[in-house]
Amino acid sequence: MAPNVPAGAGVKLSEAIGRCRGDSRSLDLSESGNKSNGLKVSAKFHKGLLVQTAYDLKPKPPLSATVNSFGRYATDHMLQIKWKRGEGWGTPSIKPVQAFELHPFAQVFHYALTCFEGMKVYKDAQGHGRLFRPMMNMNRLMVSASRLDLPDFDKEALLSYIKHLVKMDEEWIPGHEGYSLYVRPTIMATAALLGLAPPEECLLFVVMTPCGSFPNTAAEGFRELAPIKVLVSMEHVRAWPGGVGYAKVGGNYAPAIVPQIEARKFGCSQVLYVRRDECEGDDGIVGEFGAMNFFAFMQSKDGSLELVTPVLDGTILPGITRDSVLSLCREWGEFRVSERTLRFQEVSRNLLSPFLFF
Ligand SMILES: *Cc1c(COP(=O)(O)O)cnc(C)c1O
Description:
Number of domains: 2
Structural class: alpha+beta
Mean pLDDT: 86
Order of helices and strands: EHEEEEHEEEHEEEHHEEEHEEEEHEHE
CATH topology of the largest domain: D-amino Acid Aminotransferase, Chain A, domain 1
CATH superfamily of the largest domain: Aminotransferase class 4, branched-chain amino acid transferase, N-terminal domain
Distance between the termini: 7 Å
Bound molecules: pyridoxal-5'-phosphate
Largest sheet: 13 strands, mixed
Number of strands: 20
CATH architecture of the largest domain: 2-Layer Sandwich
């Protein structure tokens, strides 16, 4: 979707950071010699947030490099907070992006006890960074975490830390239309516990990477919306009734790689999952893509127009883009907007043009 952020829809980062200013006091880190994993830092406390600023900043990759390989370039800083059952959350810290050490028994390695979010920061006309509806990401992260018995967290506080992090690495927000800074909060179970058991220790971290617009293969005549080829798969199932398709949990994504590779063989860049149900022959229920919701803009026999997206029945990830598109189109009132069960035969019969969204 074209990231045209409506005025006032985002949150000005400077507002949140402003609240932290004036409260900063230097921190005596004499023991560590102002170093974070060997990296030279300057350290301060901001309202309970330990901020270690990297001395040596990384060179930014060229814009082109962010388009064709998403997620290869980390910004300079990351946010990290540890949690222990019985003790709760520790001191949140921002520090240079660095590796962490985990025991090979760590629960996340074996049972995918992890969930994540994907949020974007855009530069507005004034050059300010704006997060797109970030509280919705906090809410969804909470839903995903609770499905895995990962701990609750203070959504307001986490968002204010994220804003601080974004502000620190603001220079990484690409200024070009269609580009953004992708923010990835993750919570994972880190206790050295080989048995399948509730999380005892966790790590919440947030990393960021500059990213280009998707799809990135803009065809002639299309600037924002570039058609892509998709493989409709009834063989693979992404989510099912009673499953966890509604949550952004790690375990939902690893199995999507093989279908994705298959799609590539057919020259397709995405897989549309259609779930076969009994006695429907070659038909099935349309779900979504591996990491995008699905919309169909259709015309019925009587000529009326309808924008349809599958209803949130537990198998669909409740996308924030999805919600935004639904709200905007309902506000426009130019055609019918429906959230309902969608059969593939209906789509292929009545499709005017497909809309694909993150
Ligand atoms: C993240 C994700 C989406 C998109 O969510 P947005 O909030 O719109 O970015 C859609 N489907 C799946 C399966 C996802 O993981």
